[in-house]
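Chapter summary example.
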Amino acid sequence: MSRVGKKIIEIPKGVKITLNNGAVLVEGPKGKLDLAVPFGITVENKEEKLLINRVSEAKQNRANHGTVRARLANMILGVTEGHKKKLEIQGIGFRAQVQGQKIILNLGFSHPVEFEVPQEIIAKALTPTELEFESIDNVILGNVVAKIRKIKPPEPYKGKGIRYSGEIVKRKQGKSVTK
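The structure predicted for these 179 residues follows.
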């Protein structure tokens, strides 16, 4: 039995869960999200608690069990509190600015890089070198932040680039002169 999958999800007040044929709709104060439940996984709503079970011990069902439970827990958290992720930009002259749903990044290339942010995500520039993203959908948020980081990932010699807030970049020693 999956350790993550067998945990019960408590449904907070103000969140409405609708179970359809193979789909779960979660509605809360910040919005609504839906998830298509894969074949072999069942979701039950008993007394304001969600139970996730699997039909058989097939390898794919065991793999999906914990994943579906984690996705549902993140959806419930998203519609009540929301999810946030931060990025830091390090490097001389590197900066970012937000203009509506567009982020303009100056990262040492010959041109500024423009990145279009989806409507589900709210982007803020806390400082010219810090970006904060908010959304109710953790999956979309993680994908967008990973795409932005991929534009200029931190390099190991000087540490220049875009990194997650709090990310530790393992530094390498540069070329040294021997005597």
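To summarize the output: Residues 159 and 168 are 10 Å apart (CA to CA).
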